[in-house]
Amino acid sequence: MSRSLCILHANCQGDALRPLLENTTEFNRCFEIRQYTNYTRQLIPDEDLQNCRLFLYQKLDLKWGELSAEYMLSRLPDSCQHIEIPNLFFKGYWPFWTNAVKCIDFADSLLELLLGKGLEPEKALYLYLRGDAELLGDVCRTAEESLEREEEKERDSPIRCSALLRERWRQEQLFITVNHPGKTLLFHLTDSLLGFLGFDKLSATMRREYRHPHEDFWLPIHPRAGHMLRLPFASKFRRYQIFSNRLTHQQYTRCYIACRKHNVNELLVFLRNMSSPKDIARL
Q1: Mean pLDDT in each 10-residue stretch from start to end of the chain (283 residues)?
Q2: Contact partners, residue 244, CB within 8 Å, separation at least 6
């Protein structure tokens, strides 16, 4: 029996979702997934769109032109089922994350503020790690605003994760980075999607054996912010998986500052190539 074409049009979260679907017996028996990456503006051939029977997509607005949800859906045949899937994002654990600074990966607005004052790196690091409440600002409000944005984004979506996020974000770390949801959210998303299609939920074996493609890099959480947010998993002694090493938040921050000091934009490349945490002592 030939399988129908399923197009998965998503960002890097599609890399995490795809193996969950492909290793689900019922889904895999019915569909062959062809994945296209939205943020790289990868175009989908007309032939694939015309042959598509299940279109899974993260909603893009009209500014994306031919990749916008409105335009893409208009090109699908009437026989194609289309389901919007969440584009999950959460700033609550990382209130200082910003995309306004383009010169480094995972820019930190608080560190950039301190460094921008002309402080010596060690002084900036000291103030940043001490994390006086006045300096950190209202981190709880930042988390709440991020939760509210997720709730609004999925208001009309058939697949919803924000209720689970709101319920459990303080009990367990539900995101690996601001835009990489962890296993709990991924399993919930997948179960919701499978149920919407009339399939059984993920098996216990699948949950146990699943290997998350993004768990090689956990973005460290500021311990003082973690304390203010009442996060039991954000201790200053916690060691986060950073590619081949396990670093504390302080060690990670030293790497960040070293990259800024030496005008190195590729923080992730720097961290990936670091052979040992002992290298940090020489920064």
Answers
A1: 93 98 96 97 95 97 94 96 98 97 94 94 96 97 98 94 98 98 98 97 96 97 98 98 96 95 92 80 60
A2: 272, 274, 275
Residue whose entry in the numeric block shows the structure tokens 């590619």: 243
Question: Which run of H or E residues covers position 257?
Answer: helix 249-261
Can you tell me whether residue 201 is helix, strand or coil? coil
3-class DSSP state of 127: helix
| Four-CA torsion 214, 157, 29, 203, nearest 10 degrees | 60
* Token digits of residue 160: 């919803």
Q: Residue 240 belongs to what H/E stretch?
A: strand 240-242
Dmax of the chain from CA atoms? 67
Interatomic CA distance for residues 150 and 163, integer angstroms: 9
SS3 label, residue 4: strand
Alpha carbons 241 and 219: distance in angstroms, whole number: 8
Contact call for residues 226 and 234 (beta carbons, < 8 A)? yes
Cβ-count burial 22-42 (b if 16+ within 10 Å, e if not):
eebeebeebbebeebebeeee
Instruction: Give the separation between CA 155 and CA 105, rounded to whole angstroms.
Output: 31
Residue pointed to by tokens 């058939």: 158
User: 15 exposed, middle or buried (CB, 10 Å; 0-12, 13-18, 19+)?
Assistant: middle
Rounded to whole angstroms, what are the CA distances from 240 to 11, 52, 89, 131?
Answer: 24, 41, 20, 20
Compute CA 45 distance to the chain's CA centroid, rounded to the nearest angstrom: 27
pTM of the model: 0.95
Q: Which amino acid is at 76?
A: L
From CA 4, how far away is CA 23, in angstroms rounded? 16
